[in-house]
């Protein structure tokens, strides 16, 4: 017998971000990253906040450059001609959501101690690493948020 705590996801939750970056909607994160109600709102919010802090810190210098150029929000950063509208917003959300999902995958490894759960945890370990790689390494968000090398 396996006991899994089911978290409540009924109330809309918005996480306030720094003024340059967008606030985060918990429901958008859950939908985009397929995070079900076995992850409580409190744990999901904590993971999102930690990821938000991390990504914001990585982008602090770039954000200041944008502000110095008169751009007050991520949504108002001018895109290159070859980029679709909203690219910076999507990349930012992907970076935050991927880091938060990786954190949750790592933390929920031990929720089921059966053999099936342990086998699934082994598979999730690779998934967690994959999520973590999305916003780090030669960072897709850093690459996309800086001028291309040919400009």
How is this structure best described in words?
It is a single chain. This protein has 151 residues and is mostly helical. It has one domain (14-145). Helices cover 54% and strands 3% of the residues. It has 6 helices and 2 strands. The protein has a two-stranded antiparallel sheet with strand order 1-2. The radius of gyration is 17 Å and the shape is elongated.
Task: Sum this structure up briefly.
With 151 residues, the protein is mainly alpha-helical. The chain is 54% helix and 3% strand. The longest helix is centred in the middle third of the chain and has 21 residues, at 87-107.
The proportion of residues forming helix, as a percent range, comes to 40-55%
The total tally of domains equals 1
Strand content: under 5%
Q: What's the mean pLDDT score?
A: 79
Specify the overall morphology: elongated
Compute the separation of the termini in Å: 60 Å
Major sheet size, sense and barrel closure = 2 strands, antiparallel
Residue ranges: pLDDT <50 for 5 or more in a row? Answer: 1-6, 136-141, 147-151
Report the strand count.
Answer: 2
Topology diagram in text:
Blueprint: E1 14-15, E2 24-25, H1 26-33, H2 41-58, H3 60-68, H4 87-107, H5 115-133, H6 140-145
Antiparallel strand pairs: 1-2
Helix pairs in contact: 2-4, 4-5
